[in-house]
Amino acid sequence: MPQTRAAERRTSGAVDHRATTAYAALAANDLPRAVRLAHGLTQARPDRPDGWLVLGGAALARNEASAALRFFTEAARVAPGDALAHEGLAKAQLLSGDPVRSLAAAEEALTRGSSDVGLVRIYMELMMLFGWSGRMDEAAGVAIRRNRDIVLVRLLANALLGADRPAAAVEWLNLSWEIDPAAPESADMRLLALLLTHQFDAALAFHAECRDAGRASDFQVGCAMRALRETGRHGAALALFDEHPFEDLMAYKIAASVAANIHQDLGDAARAEAAYREAITLTTMPGPVPKAFGAFLFRQRRLAEGLPYYARRIPESGRRVIAEANAAPENLAARDRVFLFGEQGIGDQLALLTLLRDTPLDPARQELFLVTDERFAAVLEGSPLGLTVLPEARVTRMLGAIDGREIVYLGDLVRYLAPEARRPAPILRPDPGRVEGIRRRYLAEAPNGRIFGVAWSTGNPIGHLRNLPLERVLAPIPAGSLVVDLQYGDHAAEIAAARAARPDLAFVTDPEIDQMHDLAGFAAQIAALDTVVSIDNTTVHVCGALGHPDTHVLLPTGSECMWYWGAEGTRDPWYGALTLHRQPRFGDWDAALASVAAALAGTAA
After folding, report:
1. Angle, to 10 degrees, between the axis of helix 17-27 and the axis of helix 3-10?
2. Most CB atoms closer than 10 Å: which of 2, 424, 436, 457?
């Protein structure tokens, strides 16, 4: 426990007079006196943590790692619920060069209520090192809200953005603006928050306000380009890119990647590739731009070219801990157990899990663990993949006992992709009894005996261009059908409007299915349906993982079309089970919906 924390402990009411005096000496940096007093405490009351905590704090102040470890370990033994003991352990372990155990101790300290700024910073940097930025807010969020440290707020916002959790990042982007609205970086974050909450006109107005006040940054130009693109003003976005005199290299790189997306929207793959390559050559830094270029190449089935770029989605610090080579066949075959670290959202993980069949991993002779959201445990029960699901928080505490070669990022399995289309067998096996029970309930409400499931929106703020109004998704559904709502979140107003617009349809929002908390129930619900019509979101990946026989996917054009689906064709190249209906040009859903209507009419015939 460093001296800066001694005052907090001293006034907490949890210590006696002798301990208070020892903490005061430590806070005053009078280390000899603090050690002498603490030694007396450990002799008189070895069953209390205070003496050990002061000794540990003094050892940290002297950079004596082994001594600090010894004292804080004893403090944690006699008081396992003491946050300061685990806080000290985290710092001592980091000082001794053991980031794995340091991370576990830091998470324990934060979970038990520590709000020390230094400890939070250590935890966040270690989480980024291991590539787990996406869940940093779970343990660190309370502490950061409490101390409102602007550096930590911005660090967390950027980490969540880098981990593809833009919705979670919005809170921290806005908090940065709230804490220090005069700072240029806070203005950047405020603009990005407006963009991620789809307030595109407000974002453009804010950018204009900053520009007129002389506060506009190069970063804001990229945000303004995104707002213009989202509202279909591609020419204005490209003109802004061409005319702005960029000074910040990273901001130019981001803006160039937005230009690449615009060129894809316009159907110009050659110019998109040129923009990506320009952005990539400007810096070798990892992150979303090389990942996006890798996905661009994957979409065109240029797999070997895309692999090195896609691999750079993980920072070099993370690669030192979990190497890309860990996914190589010779390493996978040699391991008795393998821990697959989930990446991105539920849908992406389901897609990537199908690649396990193409690897040398064998559940009959190896222990295979999926480190991810614990909701996966029920939905993967009975799966032929033979996976045991472990929550990330649990694995954090196990890291010290795991050989680094046993850990593989799930996304690194893309090396097993082949240029030809795939036809993997289903990987989800929902409970047949539950499926039958759900189907019986729905048939009782289906006027013509046909049961449709529909989903029309994605909760991901950067997936706005995939979304459609519910009324448009319903247009191809034949009269007399039962429509089962597969959309998560509160959308009662949309359902009410759809009932009024389509009185010829029956609607069900099933209160027994909560896909946000019960993935197994959601899979059983989909398996009970005759037909699914959905935009590209988690729903279609569950359909694909089930091998659902009649699923129709509405796909946007350009970069918004996920690379799994390839660049053309109606046949699903990933699961081999879905029917794809693509926009022929940016914003044109009419042709895609007409294609769905024709397919459904053919099914009915």
Report:
1. 150
2. 457
3-state secondary structure of 408: strand
Rounded-to-integer distance, Cα 559 and Cα 474, Å: 25
Provide the 3-class DSSP secondary structure of residue 302: coil
- The three state secondary structure string of 49-111 is CHHHHHHHHHHHHCCCHHHHHHHHHHHHHHCCCCHHHHHHHHHHHHHCCCHHHHHHHHHHHHH
Q: What is the pLDDT of residue 133?
A: 79
Name every residue whose Cβ is closer than 8 Å to that of residue 149 and which is 6 or more positions away in sequence.
Answer: 117, 120
107 in Cβ contact with 393 (< 8 Å): yes
Distances, alpha carbon 78 to alpha carbons 49, 71, 81, 85, 456, in Å: 6, 11, 9, 10, 55
Q: Token pair for residue 397? A: 């505490």
**What is the rounded distance in angstroms from the CA atom of residue 135 to the CA atom of residue 273?**
32
Mean pLDDT of 401-426: 88
- In Å, how far are 218, 438, 477, 569 from 453, measured between CA atoms? 44, 13, 10, 23
How many whole angstroms separate alpha carbon 592 and alpha carbon 605?
20
**Residue 11 in this model has a pLDDT that exceeds 50:** no
Q: How confident is the model at residue 6 (pLDDT cuts 50, 70, 90)?
A: very low
Q: Which amino acid is at 136?
A: M
Residue carrying structure tokens 């795939």: 422
Cα 357 to chain center, whole Å?
Answer: 24
Tell me how far apart the terminal alpha carbons of the chain are, to the nearest angstrom.
Answer: 74
pTM of the full predicted structure?
0.84
Phi/psi at 553 (5° precision)? -110, 125
Residue 484 backbone phi and psi in degrees, to 5: -95, 125
Write the CA distances from 534 to 59, 457, 540, 541, 548, integer angstroms.
Answer: 60, 9, 7, 10, 13
Residue 169 is encoded by which pair of tokens? 């990042």
Cα 550 from Cα 560, distance rounded (Å): 23
> 388 has which bridge partners?
369
Domains of the chain, start order: 322-416 (3.40.50), 432-604 (3.40.50.2000)
User: pLDDT (tens digit, 9 = 90+) per residue, 281-309?
Assistant: 876 666 788 999 999 999 999 999 999 99
